[in-house]
Design a protein that fits this description.
By secondary structure, the protein is mainly alpha-helical. It has 18 helices and six strands. The protein binds carboxymethyl coenzyme *A.
């Protein structure tokens, strides 16, 4: 429907009431029926489990068209940003909804670089946790704990949260690398200010105090690309979580810590770990690709083709297209081959010609190919979702800040349709 033809109101009749509900049209033509008066005027609420038909906010940060496979950060296509931008520049873009000038980028890079160290006392938090614990749990704890180190601005309405935003962006890689080093019993590596954002992450992950580690620029660029692709994805599960927690007035660190926990789940960011484990199980002969696909189609098997399907993308995920090509590029530049890439391509081909996947519009999502690049970088499987979290950090922060400035924002508090027991008399335990 073109914008002029879009009705200004939607008529809803309910019993003897007829309501003219205002219609909103977004800058890309997406249409929403504003139901804020619905309950007050009719007594009824809407029912939308998973909120697939519900707009929870307006936003200027990211545009996504799932039918056409379009993803743009503040108007810039993900393809252009992947090719020409850097993760640090994308951070600024998401936070300000415009590209920085050269001077702004230099200043911001300086700020990010000089806040990378963690308070020495925070190290004890890592060593108090079991080495076998999942690093996502460790990161959620450490990010939440930042609010105990930076109490000054927490909750202060006068604060614009810039300092805390910079700290989170700067310290997340250090927290991530410490969660890994703690798990393998190696000393924590301090950040190096002479390195770029991605190269510094590789240094903190793989360096040791015994010898100097020089990050390979091919790997650093590949990591930067992954981080750009993960930087924001409008109102996904973890971002909605960050906004929801923030809506209660909780501070930025607490809100983002909750976002990390939401991202951990296998239906969300945790899928990247599951994908590589699935590919390895096929490589190791536990099941053939065809057997695996048959299982994924059986509802009672409990098996899904991980890295496939998306709530919003019903055609293709543009990030997956970029990553599929990047897998070939990165492995080629490193002069390596990975049988997992061949298995992934085989699974994709089977799915593209199988009615089950085609009819349900299930295509590879961002997590399908990202793990192959993480693996080429030497990132251990259990750290994959942590790297997703490093990438998603600017999106979470930008969305949280946008929420804070939104005059229409309210505490998130959905309703429910109660289907439990009606009122009944309490009976003492001995009479039951
Ligand atoms: N393998 C097999 N069947 C699937 C898959 C899959 N990966 N995904 C969806 N289906 C089926 C599902 O069983 C359902 O079938 P039917 O209509 O017969 O009941 C239909 O497709 C629709 O699925 P849904 O679960 O109702 O769709 P949703 O929009 O609620 O879920 C999803 C989206 C991403 C959770 C789901 O596709 C999925 O579980 N994918 C695998 C996990 C994954 O890769 N997650 C990463 C998502 S992208 C990155 C991110 O957000 O972090």
């Amino acid at each position: 429907m073109n914008q002029e033809a879009t009705p200004k109101t939607a008529k809803l009749s309910f019993g003897d009431k007829v309501l003219d509900l205002p219609v909103m049209v977004g800058s890309e033509g997406e249409v929403a029926i504003d139901i804020r008066q619905l309950r007050a005027k009719t007594g009824a609420i809407t029912y939308d489990p998973g909120l697939g038909n519900t707009g929870s906010c307006t936003s200027k940060i990211t545009f996504l068209d799932g039918e056409q496979g379009i993803l743009r950060y503040s108007g810039y296509s993900i393809e252009d940003l992947a090719k020409q931008s850097s993760f640090v520049e994308v951070m600024w873009l998401l936070l300000h909804q415009q590209l920085p000038s050269a001077a702004q980028l230099a200043q911001f890079t300086q700020e990010i670089t000089y806040h990378t160290m963690l308070h020495e006392d925070l190290k004890h938090l890592f060593s108090s946790l079991p080495k076998t614990g999942h690093p996502m749990a460790v990161c959620a704890a450490a990010v939440g704990a930042l609010s105990t180190f930076y109490q000054k601005n927490v909750g202060s309405p006068a604060d614009n949260n810039w300092g805390d935003s910079v700290r989170l962006l700067a310290k997340m890689p250090t927290i991530a690398a410490y969660s890994y080093k703690h798990g393998i019993g190696q000393p924590f590596m301090y950040p190096r200010n002479d390195l770029g954002y991605a190269a510094n992450i590789l240094h903190m992950m793989f360096g040791t105090p015994c010898e100097r580690y020089e990050p390979n620029p091919v790997l650093a660029r590949a990591l930067d690309l992954l981080l750009i692709l993960h930087a924001d994805h409008e109102q996904n599960c973890s971002t909605s979580t960050v906004r929801t927690v923030g809506s209660s007035g909780a501070n930025l660190f607490a809100s983002v810590s909750a976002g990390i926990s939401a991202l951990w789940g296998p239906l969300h960011g945790g899928a990247n770990q599951e994908v590589i484990e699935m590919l390895m199980s096929i490589r190791d002969g536990k099941r053939s690709a065809v057997e695996f696909m048959d299982l994924a189609k059986k509802k009672d098997s409990g098996v899904r083709l991980m890295g496939f399907g998306h709530r919003v993308y019903k055609n293709f995920d543009p990030r997956a297209l970029i990553l599929k090509k990047a897998c070939d590029d990165v492995l080629g530049q490193l002069g390596r081959q990975d049988p997992l890439l061949d298995i992934a391509k085989e699974l994709e081909q089977i799915a593209l010609h199988d009615d089950y996947f085609v009819s349900r519009k299930l295509y590879p999502n961002v997590d399908f190919y990202s793990g192959i690049i993480y693996k080429a970088l030497g990132i251990p499987v259990e750290m994959f979702t942590v790297f997703f979290a490093i990438g998603r950090m600017p999106g979470w922060i930008a969305q949280w800040l946008e929420y804070k400035k939104d005059p229409e924002a309210k505490i998130t508090r959905p309703r429910q349709v109660f289907v439990g027991a009606n009122q009944r008399a309490y009976r003492a335990v001995e009479t039951r």
